[in-house]
Write a structure and sequence with these properties.
alpha+beta; Alpha-Beta Plaits; six-stranded mixed sheet; four-stranded antiparallel sheet; 24% strand; globular
């Protein structure tokens, strides 16, 4: 299975709903936050994500003896239920989150796995729409559940690819592999320097107790996000073709500047972000390995500036949160901050001194509300364990 065994803890979510308490199987899959390396996972770049201590938990029991050939899911947060026929490979029929379930089930069936009828309850404490990979956690959680219910075993990398394909083919989002990779491979006290070209990763230790990660949700999500994501990917692909290169990893900043006239002004800005972000990410990983938190924070602020001006995926609310963090600075325990996720709302991620984290979160919330009238919410997380079986 994609998990590495069972755990006695319910990963910060108690199975409190009556529908879940009597079910025979329970699995957990975490969301993720990316410290640096944004919008380069689909551009052969490097990312530096970690699984967070916020999970999707799915509880289920097989249904036998009533002649059904269906999988049913009930979301306690959304108060929605879906039913997926299992007598043939699913096609995209559901709306919203149901398509992730259809896509993962289709992926298993496409590998010749027979899926029994079952009822499932989905719980989560990952903020929806916050750029923390709640959708990838849902898909990975369903895949982990199906491994248990079908007594089948897929290689962890196969789970990553299957869940990515579900998002591509059933949801229509051309995402990279970072979200699924983080949810499957996450480990306690480790970041992942993920090479999105080779799909290999290097573990980066993050066991310094005096440093923590604060995730702040702006609680804003602008509607243009999905279309703009696809547009950015298309712009990057167009720029790479014009540069006559096969991978962004082969493009240096000097080369890009020399060939600037080959690109439109927009394509050049997108390309400049990709090339510089790849360099920033490897530099940040080294800084963290060396315990150079000032340098790591400096690179995070630079990443946000690039996402704001060159890739144009930030928004006023995210910029204000990063500005507040930068105003606090190291004197108040903040080393660095940046937007994380697809952009146009969602969350920022900040590298902070552990003993200042609570004060920092309160200050961010107060000052953000003063400037915007919006109440932000924050939490502290350490790098967390990836998908695993809780019961069953």
């Amino acid at each position: 299975m994609s998990g590495v065994g069972k755990t006695k803890k319910a990963s910060l979510i108690k199975l409190t709903f009556p529908e879940a308490s009597g079910m025979s199987v329970a699995v957990a899959a975490p969301g993720r936050v990316n410290l640096i390396g944004e919008h380069v996972d689909y551009n052969d770049g490097f990312c530096l994500p970690m699984a967070i201590e916020r999970y999707v938990i799915i509880s289920a029991s097989p249904v036998v003896g009533d002649g059904r050939q269906t999988a049913s899911f009930h979301s306690t947060e959304l108060r929605e239920s879906i039913t997926i026929p299992l007598d043939e490979t699913p096609v995209p029929n559901s709306k919203g989150w149901g398509r992730y379930a259809e896509g993962v089930i289709a992926g298993f069936m496409g590998r010749g796995v027979r899926i029994p009828s079952f009822d499932a309850v989905v719980q989560s404490n990952i903020p929806l729409g916050g750029g923390l990979a709640s959708s990838a956690a849902l898909a990975v959680g369903i895949a982990t559940l199906l491994e248990v219910l079908t007594e089948s075993r897929l290689e962890p990398r196969d789970i990553v690819v299957l869940c990515q394909q579900a998002e591509h083919q059933f949801v229509g989002v051309p995402c990279g592999i970072m979200d699924q990779f983080s949810s499957v491979f996450g480990k306690t006290d480790e970041l992942m320097l993920l090479d999105c070209r080779s799909e290999q990763f290097q573990a980066i230790s993050f066991d310094a107790e005096n440093i923590s990660v604060v995730v702040t949700n702006s609680n804003v999500k602008h509607e243009l996000a999905d279309g703009e994501y696809a547009a950015r990917r298309s712009q990057c692909e167009s720029a790479l073709r014009k540069l006559k290169q096969r991978s962004w990893r082969d493009v240096t900043m000097d080369w890009l500047n020399a060939d600037q006239e080959t690109l439109s002004a927009t394509e050049f800005r997108r390309a400049r972000h990709v090339v510089s972000e790849i360099s920033r990410t490897t530099a940040a990983a080294k800084a963290i390995q060396d315990g150079n938190w000032s340098r790591a924070g400096e690179l995070m602020f630079a990443s946000h500036a690039s996402l704001q001006t060159d890739f144009e995926v930030s928004c006023d609310e995210l910029d204000i949160l990063v500005d507040i963090a930068q105003e606090m600075g190291e004197a108040h325990g903040v080393y660095g901050s940046r937007m994380t996720g697809g952009g146009f709302g969602g969350c920022t991620v900040s590298l902070v001194e552990t003993d200042q984290a609570e004060k920092i979160m309160r200050s961010l919330a107060t000052r953000f509300e003063e400037r915007t009238g919006i109440r932000a919410s924050s939490f502290v997380s350490r790098p967390a364990r990836g998908a695993h079986v809780l019961r069953g």
